[in-house]
Amino acid sequence: MKKILLSSVALLGLTAGAMAADLPSRRAPAPIVAAVPVFTWTGFYVGVNAGVGFNNGNDDVVFNPTTTIFADSNNDASFVGGAQAGYNYQIGSFVVGVEGDLQWADFGSTTYDFTGVGGTLITRNSADWFGTVRARVGVAFDRALIYATGGWAFTDNRNGWTVGGGIEYAITNNLSAKLEGLYVKLDSDDFTVPGVVGTFSTGDTDFGVVRAGLNYRFGTY
Fold first, then answer.
1. Which tens digit of pLDDT belongs to each residue from 20-46?
2. What is the spatial distance between Cα 127 and Cα 185, in angstroms, rounded to a whole number?
């Protein structure tokens, strides 16, 4: 009888253990830690900018090898403002991209004195806008980007080129601020003078631009 009782107790113990093993665990599941998204400069962006432009050009016109028509520009510096759009692509720490912008700028007017060669005083207004289409190449230090830029510059009747550089910092994943400097050089501008035979050229026009801007970035995170 003792053997029968001991065998029954052992059997009941094994059965209870097996049933307990089949019961669901009451321990709390391990917490799921979300991976922190890696920031990238890749993506399209649009933005606005504002700054100042400095007119460095010499507006004097050579009438012939011995006569120079002197010019007087009434505005050598101007407010500059506009909008830009572009695309960046990040490869490791390197960032390449393209950007285009349109800028309002008023460098005033220039007065030419043609009275010494049979003409009169002539005042010509400078273009009040310009644009650029540029490549950008830079190195990213996480949310900071240092870059060089250069490409085509244009206005209403002239073409040229531009080169410069800047620094941009991503304040959030979508909003970044930049500080940028450009040197712009435009081709000569031909014109005629009433009462004077011939076509005159102003020569190349060059100016510098320093501007700050904000970009809204449609990035991939």
1. 445 455 666 666 655 556 889 999 999
2. 13
